[in-house]
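Re: your question from the hallway

Yes, I did run it. Sequences:
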Amino acid sequence: MGELKESRQISLEPSESGFATTKLDALLAWARKWSLFKYPFVTACCGMEFMALTSPRFDGSARFGAEAPRFSPRQSDLLWVVGTISQRQAPVLRRIYEQMMEPKWVLAFGTCASCGGFYDNYTTVPGIDKIIPCDVYVPGCPPRPEAVIDGLMLLQDKITSGDRRPAIVKPREDPLKGLVQLRKGKQQEEA
Amino acid sequence: MSERVLQVLRDKFGDAILETHSQCGDDTAVVDASKWKEICRFLKESPQLDMNLIVDLCGVDYPDREPRFEVVLHLYSIPKRHRLRLKARVGDAEGEGAEIESITDIWPGANWFERETFDLMGVTFKNHPDLRRILMYPEFVGHPLRKDYAANKTQPLVPYRTESEAGVPLEKLAPFGADEGMPFGRKVWGTETDR
Amino acid sequence: MEPIDLDLDENELELPSEPMHLNMGPSHPAMHGTVRMVLELSGETIVKSDVQIGYLHRGFEKMCERGTWAQVFPYADRLNYVSPMLNNVGYALAVEKLCDIAVPDRCQWYRMILGELARISDHLTCTGAMAMELGAFTPFLWFIKAREMVWDILEEETGARLTHSFGRIGGMAKPPTPALKEMCRKAIPTILGILEDGEGMLLKNRIFIDRLENVGNISGEDAVALSWTGPCLRASGVAYDVRKAHPYLKYDEVEFDVPVGKNGDNLDRFLIRLQEIRQSARIILQCCDRMADEGPVNTDDPRVMLPPKEDVYTTIEATIQHFKLVMEGAKVPKGEVYSYTEGGNGELGFYLVSDGTGTPYRVRIRPPCFPITGGLSKLLAGAMLSDIVPTFGSLNMIGGECDH
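Structure:
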């Protein structure tokens, strides 16, 4: 019987300034997180929400200094993998990732990029972390732009703290909260 | 209105038209595969029928019967506004010998449709200008839309990373096991449960 | 090679003359779909191009064979993901044609409203992205702002902005909210206003017009021979619109025009999409006037429709009906059908083969932009390298649909 493995989730509170080793590292981290050049590797439907994210209503990248898209892997440091990656596309993605220079981060935008989505078939890669390391997963099909902003802020926290463990964006509100009486005990603290 | 189309076809080609029906209002004719191109050319060039738009060309796999594949062609006439579905059966039980004439020189738009049918179903089109895979990558072996190709059998181009390489757990288990959530009474064509 | 400062006749110089191969890779800055073009260039002119699709092939047709008839809706949504409602409605109409079910009038008006909203969203995205790729970023942002208004209405109705999976066999997932008509009537004039602003910005711009006019020409006969339909075909002068030629839902009871172009170039395709937005707005307002405020939205045919939840929890018959519909799927009669609607890019067809069980035997989508992208290499022959961008943009190739 399959069980849901506990994934390592990092909560979304702004980091009480995770420590950096030296002042220089702190300065570099600060500079890097406020000037991420993105490589939008856009394939599918999530691309529409990606467009909406850059639109004036959500402004999900400009206010973080992450607006400038660089369509060359040499000039970018954040790889946004937006949409489903098919087996045919996989070598292309791997190549682009390898061409990027350190320090580089990867954001998996959408469920298809995080885990293959509901395309469990001969042609879809079940998540980009099967091919390249990924830092932040933003689930959603497609995720709301607010979720992506949360993902970007989560990535910024990780850049500050120098943490390279992958993290998943949690929803802002638990949709079951107050609706379902879960078993007491373990779930008590989540209710 | 389009009963005329079937009648004209029957009058002209007689024996080559094996069956006809008009289920749900769609006129359909099953024809002999050897007369495929001739019938298509007649449909395009006859002034009475004038089927100038090829709407769709695809294949359907019926592994329980022989010939196994059915090549289905949908045609439309923009000036006369009638439609026709033309079908031809090819291929034996193992999927070999599924060949039919290409109609790319009658309707150039058939080019990619035939490539896709070749790619996903394995039906070869004779005299096609450029018959190669279109949706799958050239290294792919097999024809995925056939019923005997398991849906989740992958042939990765880039080998997957292992957990030791990644340093983090990569296995994302579905909330139910492979044998749960099974379709009740549905016929399930082979799935592979190992990845 | 000879040194060039010698006094030589032009024909005596040996210059390399092999064409250059350039790869416009599957990851490229254009916002439309992931496609790879292998170009053979002679200077700036394209001699031959090989358009390779399939980078977004997600196995739609194979996935449909693994679930039930109703489980196809989420997959259908993601085909043409800029106008998902049109795909939902198209697929629902196909299954209903096979089952011989008629949906109530209110549902037909509702489907038309949501479908035309989706079409507006599709055309806004296409024209906005086309403008952005040519350097005009501002109209893109304006059109996305207008698209957000459309998505707000869809979010209020269906719960999701983009991939709603709202269609059901025999109706819709939920009835229209009471606020639908008011929201549409408020949003449409604003959207049309933004459209006019965008047009004013773009269509008086000499550079924009020069890049689009007389580029990517195709004649009517060539387009028909290549199996084009939709705005791309109408730009070449052939007035074929499924809504007018073979009306479905209530399209024969509303008044709207079908814009038809003359030259078949990029500018015509661009302008036609802008005009179609206006026509869609007209249709929506008429539907809002005609749609009843009360009445059933779903058919009550027990073969396909889930029973009301109160009955499911209290009576055994409804429980069993619910169980069988969900677990085994609606038992669609054996046979085959081809049903066609006007999608965002042209004739969107679904060819369904049923073997009488609850699992589809074959679901084939006839993607409108598949043959259109097939004709791209013909459009690009002899064009310049920088003409690829507006030409490809004007075709509105949506990867999810083209690669299904």
